[in-house]
Structure formats: structure tokens, C-alpha cells
Amino acid sequence: SLVVQGAVDGHVFERFVAEVLVPSLRPGQIVVWDNLSVHKSADARARIEAAGCHVVFLPSYSPDCNPIEQAFAKTKQALRRIGPRSWESVAAAVGEVLPTVTAADARAFFADAGFPCPSHDTT
Q: What is the spatial distance between Cα 40 and Cα 1, in angstroms, rounded to a whole number?
């Protein structure tokens, strides 16, 4: 993961794609993005396609079609239980709660959004 203080701009997003996302991808996977302006990065898309993957954009403002919204909700709920109060404690707590969003959760979030995914052994 990549935790930053402040807004995610094009530079931060491209760093995330290069350092975190692309190394975790396998050829043939699909990356689903909403229409956030930083997602329009030609460099980020080229890196994903060079990894043998595809980028698909969701329709404009469609949180009900966006599986990440459910992952964010689960993550925020866990963060509220921990109750971090400083930047350092928030960053540490994010590292604790992100792994609680499991592959099974992700499949369910995608299915709820209308994108059923086959189950694969990820071990």
C-alpha cells in the first residue's frame, strides 16, 4: 500500500501505479477505475497495459457500481474502532486495517456492483 498525507495528485497516483499496483498485477487482469481526473494518466494506463492488463472506466459518478466504495466503508469502519488521532497513528492503523479487506470481500464487492468474479486460489 501507499499512504500519503494530503490529496492524491497525478504524481502520487503514478507512483502508486508504478510501485504498488503494477508489481501486484498478473497478465489478463482488469483494473476498474472511476473517472477521477488522476485516473486519466496516459503513463499509468501504459504501465498497466505493458503488464498485460486492461483498464476499464466506470460510468460517470456511479458509486453503486464502484466496488472500492464498499472496501472504503469496511476500512473506515475499522479505523473508527481503532480511533487514531494523529497522522502517525492513522498511517499505522491503515496498515493494520487494509489486510482485513480479504479476497473474498473483494469478490463480494465486485459481485454486488454487477461484476461477478471467479474464485481463484491466491495462496
A: 21
